[in-house]
C-alpha cells in the first residue's frame, strides 16, 4: 500500500504542476533559510570565542527563530492552498472508496515528495546564503574576518529534517479537513467552497489573539532601562500573525463583504463580478492576505521599534548628560582614569561609570528572589555635576559605599522608599545590605540602579576594575583649558578618546547604525522570503482560475474586462492585507511607545512607512495583473478541458 501511495503522490505532483510548483518554491525558500541558520550555528559552535564563534551563535539564535517562523508560515499557506484547490479531486477519491485515513496519508506523502525534491537545491542555496551573511558580518566588523564556515553533514541533515517536520505539520490540519470531504461533492457540476469556519479554529484564533493582547498590555506597562526590548516586538508580531492566520477565513469573509460592496457601488459593471467572487472565494482572499500582511507588519516593527527606542534614549541623553566632555577607550579605561582626568587644570568634576548587574532580593527565605537590573557603578564625587538623572526623591550627590539609587520603576517593583534597607545580590553571587539613598526617573538607556564603584569593584569577577566612561565637567570659563588638558592626556594615552557632547552623540549614532546592520540583514532576508511567498500565493490563487476566466470569455467577456476584474480583486486583496498588517504593526508600536515615552502615539517616519506600504502594494498588484495576463493566453476551449 505504501508503494501505491507513493506512486499516486508522485503522479499527483507531476500532473498538478501549478499547485505543487508553489509548494516547491515555498519549500526551497524554507530550506534555504533553515540551512543557512544551521550552517552558521554549527560553525559558530565549533569556532572559539576569539574568532567570533559566540557572536555568531548570539546572532543566529534570534535570526533563526524568526526565519523558522516565517518559513513555517509560508509553507503552511502554500500546502493549505494546494490542498484546498484539489477539493474535487479528493472528493473523487472518496467516491471510489478511498478512506479518510488513506487521503490523509496521500497528502502527507505528497508533502514528503515535495520536501525531498527541494532538499538539494535548498541546501545548496542555504550554504551560499550562509557565506553571504558571514561576509556581511565580517565587512561590518561584527565578527573577525578569520571566522570560517566549518560545518558538517549534521547541519544539512538537521535542516532537511526540520523542513520535513514543518511540511508535515503544515499539511496535517489541511489533510484532516480534506479527508472529511463528502464523496457526493465529486458528482456536482461545481464544487462551491464551504463557508463554514471550524469552531476549534475560531476558538484557537481568539485565544491566541487574547494572549497577544495580554502581551501588549504587559509591554505597555513595562518601564525602566529594559523596557520595549526589540526582540519582544518580533515575538508579538509572530503571536498576532498566528492569530490572524487562524482567523483568516473570518477576515477574508469580512473584507470580501465590505470591500466587495464598495466595488459594487464604485464600479457597477465589473464590480458585480468582483463582489460575487470575493463572497464565494473568501478563503482564497484570506490565503493571499496573510503573507502580504506579514510582510508589512514584520518590516514596520523591525524598522520602527529600534528607531523609537533610539530616539527616546537620545532625548533622555540630551537631558541627562550635563558634562562638557566624555573620555572613553576600547576595552575600557583603567580604574585610575577618573583621578587622572580630575587633575587636569580647570576640571570641576570627573566621574567614572561602569556597568554591572545586581538583583534586588525580596524576602528573607532560604532562596530569595527578586527583579534584576543593569546597574551603573560610579566613582566618588558630585554625580549631579555631570549627570541629571531626574531625581524625584533623595540625593545622588554623594553615594557612600553602602548606598544605592533605584529608578522609579525598580523602586516601585520592590516597594522601597528612600531610607529603606535593600538587600542586593551582586555580580559575584554574594549579597550586600545597602540603603536606598535616591530615586530617579531617567533610566532608559542608562540603568535601573546606581551604586558605588567601590562596592561593585569588591564583587567584580573578570579582572581588575575598569571604567566604561568618564564624565568631565569644566569650571566656568575653563572649557578651553580643559580641552587642551584632555588633548595632552590623549597624546600620552593614544587609546583614549576625548569627546564633547556633539562628538559623543555622533559616536552613539555610529554605534546605532552598526547595530542596525543586523536588523537590516534580518529584515532583508525575511522580506525577500515573504515577498516570494506573496508572489507564490498570488500565482497559485490566480492560475487555478484559468477555467473560470475561460468561461467568462466564452459567455462574452473580453480579455480587457477579465483583466480589469482581476486588477480590482487584487486591489481589494492588497487593501485588506495592508489594513491587517498596519493594524498588527500599530498595536505593537503603540504598546512600545507607551512603554518608552508614556505616550500611545508613535510617530514613525512617514517616508519609511510609505515605502513599506507602496512596495508591498506594488509587488502584489504587479504580480496579480501579470499572472492574469499569462493565464489568459490559453485558449478558452483548452482551459475548459483542463489542458
Question: Briefly, what is this?
Answer:
The protein is an alpha+beta fold and 643 residues long. The chain contains 20 helices and twelve strands.
Give the strand tally.
Answer: 12
Radius of gyration: 30 Å
> How helix-rich are the residues, as a percent range?
55-70%
Note the beta-strand portion: 5-15%
Provide the number of structural domains: 3
Structural class: alpha+beta
Work out the helix count.
20
Sheet of most strands = 6 strands, mixed, barrel
- Determine the N-to-C terminus distance: 30 Å
Features:
3 domains; six-stranded mixed β-barrel; two-stranded antiparallel sheet; 20 helices; elongated
What's the arrangement of secondary structure elements?
Elements: H1 2-15, H2 17-46, H3 53-84, H4 87-95, H5 100-139, H6 153-179, H7 199-221, H8 230-246, H9 248-266, H10 270-280, H11 282-320, E1 325-328, E2 333-334, H12 337-342, E3 347-361, E4 372-378, E5 391-394, E6 403-407, H13 408-414, E7 421-425, E8 431-440, E9 449-452, H14 453-457, E10 466-467, E11 469-474, H15 479-492, E12 497-500, H16 501-543, H17 546-554, H18 559-597, H19 606-631, H20 636-640
Parallel strand pairs: 4-9, 6-8
Antiparallel strand pairs: 1-11, 1-12, 2-10, 3-4, 3-7, 3-11, 5-8, 6-9, 7-8
Helix pairs in contact: 1-5, 2-3, 2-5, 2-6, 2-16, 3-6, 3-8, 3-11, 3-16, 5-6, 7-8, 7-18, 8-11, 8-18, 9-10, 9-11, 10-11, 10-18, 11-16, 11-18, 11-19, 16-19, 18-19
Amino acid at each position: 500500500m505504501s508503494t501505491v501511495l507513493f506512486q499516486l503522490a508522485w503522479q499527483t505532483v507531476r500532473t498538478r504542476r501549478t499547485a505543487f510548483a508553489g509548494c516547491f518554491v515555498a519549500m526551497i525558500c524554507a530550506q534555504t533559510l533553515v540551512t543557512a541558520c544551521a550552517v552558521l550555528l554549527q560553525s559558530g559552535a565549533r569556532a572559539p570565542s576569539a574568532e567570533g564563534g559566540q557572536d555568531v551563535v548570539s546572532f543566529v539564535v534570534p535570526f533563526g527563530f524568526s526565519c523558522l517562523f516565517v518559513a513555517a508560515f509560508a509553507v503552511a499557506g502554500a500546502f493549505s492552498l494546494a490542498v484546498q484547490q484539489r477539493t474535487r479531486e479528493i472528493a473523487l477519491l472518496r467516491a471510489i472508496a478511498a478512506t479518510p485515513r488513506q487521503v490523509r496519508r496521500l497528502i502527507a506523502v505528497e508533502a514528503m515528495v515535495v520536501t525531498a525534491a527541494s532538499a538539494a537545491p535548498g541546501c545548496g542555496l542555504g550554504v551560499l546564503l550562509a557565506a553571504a551573511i558571514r561576509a556581511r558580518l565580517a565587512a561590518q566588523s561584527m565578527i573577525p574576518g578569520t571566522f570560517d564556515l566549518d560545518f558538517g553533514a549534521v547541519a544539512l541533515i538537521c535542516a532537511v529534517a526540520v523542513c520535513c517536520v514543518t511540511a508535515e505539520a503544515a499539511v496535517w490540519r489541511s489533510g484532516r479537513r480534506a479527508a472529511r470531504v463528502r464523496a457526493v461533492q465529486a458528482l456536482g457540476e461545481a464544487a462551491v467552497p464551504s463557508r463554514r469556519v471550524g469552531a476549534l479554529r475560531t476558538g484557537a484564533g481568539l485565544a491566541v489573539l487574547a494572549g497577544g493582547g495580554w502581551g501588549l498590555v504587559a509591554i505597555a506597562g513595562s518601564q525602566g532601562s529594559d523596557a520595549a526590548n526589540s526582540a519582544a516586538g518580533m515575538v508579538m508580531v509572530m503571536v498576532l500573525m498566528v492569530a490572524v492566520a487562524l482567523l483568516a477565513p473570518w477576515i477574508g469573509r469580512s473584507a470580501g463583504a465590505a470591500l466587495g460592496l464598495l466595488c459594487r457601488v464604485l464600479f457597477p459593471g465589473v464590480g458585480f463580478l468582483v463582489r460575487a467572487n470575493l463572497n464565494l472565494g473568501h478563503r482564497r482572499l484570506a490565503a493571499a492576505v496573510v503573507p502580504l500582511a506579514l510582510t508589512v507588519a514584520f518590516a514596520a516593527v523591525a524598522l520602527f521599534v529600534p528607531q523609537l527606542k533610539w530616539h527616546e534614549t537620545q532625548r533622555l541623553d540630551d537631558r541627562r548628560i550635563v558634562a562638557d566632555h566624555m573620555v572613553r577607550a576600547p576595552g575600557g579605561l583603567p580604574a585610575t582614569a577618573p583621578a587622572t582626568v580630575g587633575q587636569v587644570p580647570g576640571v570641576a568634576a570627573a566621574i567614572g561609570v561602569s556597568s554591572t548587574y545586581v538583583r534586588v532580593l525580596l524576602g528573607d527565605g532560604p532562596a530569595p528572589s527578586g527583579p534584576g537590573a543593569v546597574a551603573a557603578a560610579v566613582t566618588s564625587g558630585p554625580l549631579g555635576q555631570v549627570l541629571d538623572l531626574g531625581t524625584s526623591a533623595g540625593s545622588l550627590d554623594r553615594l557612600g559605599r553602602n548606598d544605592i539609587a533605584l529608578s522609579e520603576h525598580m523602586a516601585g517593583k520592590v516597594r522601597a522608599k528612600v531610607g529603606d534597607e535593600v538587600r542586593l545580590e551582586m555580580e559575584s553571587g554574594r549579597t550586600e545590605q545597602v540603603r536606598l539613598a535616591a530615586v530617579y526617573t531617567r533610566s532608559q538607556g542608562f540603568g535601573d540602579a546606581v551604586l558605588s564603584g567601590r562596592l561593585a569593584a569588591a564583587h567584580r569577577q573578570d579582572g581588575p576594575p575598569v571604567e566604561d566612561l568618564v564624565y568631565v565637567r569644566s569650571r566656568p570659563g575653563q572649557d578651553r583649558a580643559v580641552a587642551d588638558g584632555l588633548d595632552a592626556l590623549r597624546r600620552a594615552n593614544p587609546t583614549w578618546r576625548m569627546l564633547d557632547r556633539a562628538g559623543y552623540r555622533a559616536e552613539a549614532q555610529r554605534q546605532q547604525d552598526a547595530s542596525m546592520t543586523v536588523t537590516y540583514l534580518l529584515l532583508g532576508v525575511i522580506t525577500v522570503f515573504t515577498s516570494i511567498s506573496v508572489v507564490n500565493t498570488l500565482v497559485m490563487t490566480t492560475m487555478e482560475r484559468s477555467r473560470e476566466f475561460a468561461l467568462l470569455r466564452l459567455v462574452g467577456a473580453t480579455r480587457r474586462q477579465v483583466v480589469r476584474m482581476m486588477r480590482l480583486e487584487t486591489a481589494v486583496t492588497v487593501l485588506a492585507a495592508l489594513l491587517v498588517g498596519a493594524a498588527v504593526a500599530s498595536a505593537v508600536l503603540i504598546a512600545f511607545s507607551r512603554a518608552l515615552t508614556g505616550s500611545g502615539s508613535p510617530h514613525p517616519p512617514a517616508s519609511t512607512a510609505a515605502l513599506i506600504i507602496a512596495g508591498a502594494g506594488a509587488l502584489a498588484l504587479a504580480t496579480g495583473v501579470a499572472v492574469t495576463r499569462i493565464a489568459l493566453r490559453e485558449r478558452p476551449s483548452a482551459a475548459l478541458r483542463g489542458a
